[in-house]
Write a structure and sequence with these properties.
By secondary structure, the chain is an alpha/beta fold. The protein has 20 helices and 20 strands. Helix content is 40%, strand content 16%. The strands form 4 sheets. Strands 3-4-2-5-6-1-7 form a 7-stranded parallel sheet, sandwiched between helices. It has a 7-stranded parallel sheet with strand order 10-11-9-12-13-8-14, sandwiched between helices. The protein has a 4-stranded antiparallel sheet with strand order 16-17-15-20. Strand 16 and strand 17 form a beta hairpin. The longest helix has 22 residues. It is elongated and about 90 Å long. It starts with 5 loop residues before the first helix and ends with a helix. The C terminus is likely disordered.
Length: 536
């Protein structure tokens, strides 16, 4: 990457910039010319560098007045933008930046202003507070950025933004970035910007082509298990999980934490200091999984998220675009997984219509697939240790074990120990759902016909007062099988029928023979494979 300022170019190379993104290559030349610019781009396209690089080029580092102001919708985004500006300007020794936002003692930020920063990054409320105290003077500002402008409008900051703009140097250059262009945004551009150039990198497909999007049909009660299986198969470094409510964020975080995952949460009820600590842990890789609401995650710029999981289908289609935009950042590949219950199917249809993108239907991996993938991971892990780690301190112990046991026994035992360290509480069976099929009268919801299953005949029927639900509960209690293992359930007048996988046959026969059900001693046997049995 060639750039005219060698210090900025050096920093960009350190940050891993290979080439400019579309928004950067289109916006930077216009901003360098001093033009007002409106950038219409989604999250994750590199807009901070688009306004940050020309800003750093324009600053007069001998001038002790505030020269540039970047207004952000959230505290988290303000902190992140400051961090990225500092990284781009790391070889500019006289660069001084300050982030100001609510949720932190104002006295701390007042002290920071005494160091005469050239750049202020802040949220509207705290900026106005400091303006009223006459600690921020706006008449020398030559460069002003509205970042995530549409989010600021959604959060009710429109009056605050207009107040700031009215009191800022009228000869300033103004740059605005927004993922959407509602009428209120256009009103601001007409009133406060000078013949702005529009840079539009949002196409008809509103979602990032670097993101592979899948959805899974699953009952709400099985969603945490579904997340576990997906995490084991894809093995991501950083995962962001979205829920629609604060309560659900709490529930999902608690469940995953109980199962041993390195997980934490952010939502509006948490104190600002706690939210920033959690985000810092997630940024640095100390935390593997972050669970969040849409409100708490507004404006977040989190790099290296490999997977976004929608635990709940978002209530608005545009939220879906913002959510999955947290992965697949600036040329990196990412995955988006959406867990869809029956009541959420209409929301999925709205998302498909809004994004005009392909969200492919997939099935949650079965436990057998999870085990197989985990074993492949173990094989690679052991091979990596053999090739790259000095294992000589363990040779004596290994030799003693091989003197006592066969090599295969020793390796199997060690793999068992490795497997026990994995965080999973296995639920047997297929947890995928087909919501297009309806249950027949006299059958339970899990009456999916399985041609490869073992069919059973039980000598108790409806004339003894037995219902399909009672039958399933009875089988689960006696056999300890999971609900999803018991399929094709039907109850006729004198007998009942159900199916399981063939591997459960001996256990089912032993568990259900000569026990009491609805006042009768049971007799269970293999059912005759007739069509009649499946349709009673």
């Amino acid at each position: 990457m060639n750039y005219k300022n060698e210090q900025i170019e050096h920093a960009l190379n350190d940050m891993g910039f290979d080439e400019f993104t579309e928004i950067q290559s289109k916006a930077i030349p216009l901003i360098e010319q001093g033009l007002d610019v409106i950038g219409h781009s989604q999250t994750g396209t590199g807009k901070t560098a688009a306004f940050g690089i020309p800003m750093l080029e324009k600053l007069d580092y001998e001038n002790k007045n505030i020269q540039a102001m970047i207004i952000c919708p959230t505290r988290e985004l303000a902190v992140q933008v400051k961090s990225e500006i500092d990284s781009m300007g790391q070889y500019l020794p006289k660069l001084k930046t300050v982030a100001i936002y609510g949720g932190e003692p104002i006295t701390t930020q007042i002290r920071s202003l005494k160091y005469k920063p050239q750049v202020i990054i802040g949220t509207p409320g705290r900026i106005i507070d400091l303006m009223k105290r006459k600690l921020i003077k706006l008449f020398d500002i030559s460069y002003l950025v509205l970042d995530e402008a549409d989010e600021m409008l959604k959060m009710g900051f429109v009056d605050d933004i207009e107040l700031i703009l009215e009191q800022t140097n009228q000869d300033r250059q103004t740059v605005m970035f927004s993922a959407t262009m509602p009428k209120r945004i256009l009103n601001i551009t007409n009133r406060y910007m000078k013949k702005p150039e529009l840079v539009n990198v949002v196409t008809g497909d509103e979602t990032n082509l670097d993101i592979t999007q899948y959805y899974y049909q699953i009952q709400d009660k099985n969603k945490v298990e579904g997340i576990q299986r997906l995490l084991h198969v894809y093995n991501p470094n950083l995962t962001l999980i979205f829920c629609n409510t604060k309560r659900k964020v709490d529930d999902v975080t608690r469940e995953l934490s109980k199962k041993g995952y390195n997980v934490n949460k952010i939502h509006g009820d948490l104190k600002q200091t706690a939210r920033l600590q959690v985000l810092d842990s997630f940024h640095s890789g100390v935390l593997d999984i972050l669970v969040a609401t849409d409100v708490a995650a507004r404006g977040l710029d989190i790099k290296n998220v490999e997977i976004v999981i929608n635990y709940d289908v978002p209530e608005k289609a545009e939220y879906y675009v913002h959510r999955i935009g947290r992965t697949g950042r600036i040329g990196n590949k990412g995955y988006s997984f959406t867990l869809v219950s029956k009541r959420e199917l209409s929301r999925l249809d709205s998302i498909l219509a809004f994004t005009k993108s392909t969200i492919k239907k997939r099935k949650i991996p079965t436990p057998d697939t999870v085990v197989r993938v985990r074993q492949d991971h173990q094989l690679l892990e052991v091979e990596g240790i053999i090739q790259n780690i000095n294992t000589s301190p363990y040779l004596d112990t290994a030799s003693k074990l091989l003197d006592i046991h066969e090599p295969l026994e020793v390796i199997s035992a060690l793999l068992y120990k490795l497997d026990k360290n994995q965080v999973t509480e296995k639920i047997d069976g297929d947890i995928n759902e087909d919501f297009t099929k309806r249950s027949s009268k006299g059958q339970t919801k899990n009456t999916r016909t399985r041609s490869n299953h073992q069919r059973y005949h039980l000598n108790v029927g409806s004339e003894s007062g037995l219902s399909p639900k009672q039958l399933v509960n009875f089988i689960m209690k006696k056999t300890k099988l999971n609900n999803n293992d018991i399929v094709d359930v039907s109850v006729s007048k004198k007998a009942s029928f159900f199916s399981t996988q063939p591997r459960h046959y001996n256990h089912v026969i032993a568990s259900l023979t000569n026990v009491t059900l609805s006042g009768k001693n049971t007799s269970v046997q293999m059912a005759k494979p007739t069509k009649k049995n499946y349709n009673r």
